[in-house]
Write a structure and sequence with these properties.
Blueprint: E1 2-11, E2 19-29, E3 34-39, H1 45-53, E4 60-65, E5 68-69, H2 75-78, E6 82-85, H3 99-110, H4 121-132, H5 151-163, E7 169-173, H6 181-197, E8 202-205, H7 209-214, E9 218-223, E10 226-232, H8 233-238, H9 241-252
Parallel strand pairs: 3-8, 3-9, 6-7, 7-8
Antiparallel strand pairs: 1-2, 1-4, 4-5, 9-10
Helix pairs in contact: 3-5, 5-6
The chain binds adenosine-5'-diphosphate (ADP) and magnesium ion.
């Protein structure tokens, strides 16, 4: 489904602050895999997502999505089939437009119809249906401007915008990290249900290691632009947060460093 081959990204190339953010990285995802991504600050997690989305071009390497070479496709073209939710709830939606208008815009973008934010009756029924699955009461507020919603509600709308037409790939970059714990859990719950219902191929960056090990089907740990560990199945089931920390320090001869890393074991 997603195939990243020998990806290299160097920032500030040729200057004293030259930094290799992706260091010959290889990653292959099968359709329907749900991969959680962890790693220290600056490991290259967001850079990996940026590379897949086309925020910049790689210095070297290739990216294939569903058999198509997307290495040189512009970001806005990739956005038709790659959904992305950021940490910042302000990022995914247009605040001065209503829920309905935001969804309509996203829907027409993904179906490659003429851009429109005046939804048809059939669309409204679809939006209402999908919103009601979130159990946040948003289906009764479709004419509310998104700027008036809470962070969690906005993330839910963004998630729906990304999946109203199921994307080939869904990328979640710490999308619950800015929310209070109860809301974060609610948005995670919605996320899991959506991924499952549409069998979405998904990558989710999280600083919650326990959540990383218990969510989805596979966990990769990045470090210094490389994939250090990649685990799934029984191996992953048996791995605890402590095991992971130990594996990291044995392999890298240093402690895992992420100021926001959650080491909760529940
Ligand atoms: N646009 C950019 N310009 C220069 N350096 C960048 C840029 N984006 C990321 N970096 C650097 O690349 C490294 C990896 O960053 P990032 O992928 O954001 O890490 P994280 O794993 O915390 O998401 C960091 O050292 C960061 O400072
Ligand atoms: Mg990041």
């Amino acid at each position: 489904m997603l195939d990243i081959r020998n990806a290299v990204k160097v920032f500030e190339k040729g200057t004293p602050i030259e930094h290799t953010a992706l260091n010959n990285l290889n990653l292959h995802l099968e359709p329907g895999e749900f991969v959680t991504v962890i790693g220290s600050n600056g490991a290259g997690k967001s850079t990996l997502f940026n590379a897949v989305c086309g925020t910049f071009l790689l210095n070297r390497g290739r990216i294939f999505l569903d058999g198509q070479d997307i290495t040189y496709l512009p970001e806005h073209v990739r956005a038709r089939t790659i959904g992305r939710v950021f940490q910042d709830p302000m990022k995914g939606t247009a605040p001065h437009m209503t829920i309905e208008e935001n969804l309509s815009l996203a829907h027409s973008r993904s179906t490659a119809r003429a851009l429109s934010f005046a939804p048809a009756k059939k669309e409204i029924a679809l939006f209402r249906d999908r919103l009601s699955e979130f159990r946040m009461g948003l289906e009764d507020r479709m004419k509310t401007k998104v700027g008036l919603l809470s962070g969690g509600q906005r993330q839910a709308v963004t998630l729906l915008m990304c999946t109203i037409v199921p994307p080939k790939l869904l990328l979640l970059d710490e999308h619950t990290a800015a929310l209070d714990p109860a809301t974060a859990e609610q948005v995670m719950d919605i996320t899991k249900k959506t991924v499952e219902a549409y069998r979405l191929t998904t990558m989710m960056i999280t600083h919650n290691i326990s959540q990383a090990l218990s969510t989805g089907t596979r966990t990769v740990m990045m470090d210094e632009g490389e994939i250090l560990f990649d685990m799934s199945g029984e191996e992953r089931e048996k791995t605890t947060v402590d095991d992971l920390m130990r594996m990291y320090s044995t392999s890298r001869k240093k402690e895992l460093d992420n100021d926001r890393m959650l080491l909760k074991k529940e």
